[in-house]
Structure formats: C-alpha cells, structure tokens
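Many introductory courses stop at the sequence. We go one step further.
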Amino acid sequence: MEYSKRDITFDDGGALRFLVAEPSRFALAMVTCRYYQKDHWSVQTTDGARALVTWDGQYWWDKTSQQAGARLSNFRIHGTSVGIGDAVAALRPVFPQLADMLDKYGTDAGETGLTASLPFDLRCSLAR
C-alpha cells in the first residue's frame, strides 16, 4: 500500500480527514500476518504554507517471523533535516563509537529507522 498524506492542514479539513481515516486503515492492516506500507507526510497550518513537518515513511511487519520495522527518510522540521542520520554525522568526528552504535538506525540525512520483535501469533504461525 502507498498513501500520500501531504494534505494534512488545519484549515481545509485535511487533518480531520486524516484523523477519521487512519484508525480504520490501521485496524484493517492489524489482522494481517504480513504488511508493508509506504507513505508521504506533510503537515502544514494551511494549504500552500511551508510545511511544519515532512517525511517519507515505510512501515512493515511479518508476524510469522515476529519482526516489525519502520524507516523514515527525508524527515524535516520547518525545512531542516533531522533524524538519526544527522546525529550520526554530527557525532562521528568527536564520538565515533557512539556514531557507530547509532548508524544502524540511519546514516543518511533525515533518516531514522528501527526494528522490533513482535509477540507470538498462533494464527500467523500456522500460515507458514
């Protein structure tokens, strides 16, 4: 699935449309054993205004292997790149060991990611 969530605004109903639609999308996805979603986010006060926050996201889970993950790229707050990748670049010259520990979560500017374990799901283990 791929979604464009670039119309999240406070004055034209974009934020309200998102808040109404997202729980049902999430609920439908939660019953699946495997899921992948890619989306593009932008939150601004009004249509055409400079974005307060933007990012591209990829989210997945595989309940058969009990793993889930997320990756954010192009993460910006008011146009400034933020993310673990930015922290890694800033830390590397002074604290290279800390940078090495963090770079598994993202190395590019505006990039952040993580993986996590999921609880055992008997229904999905039978689907192997």
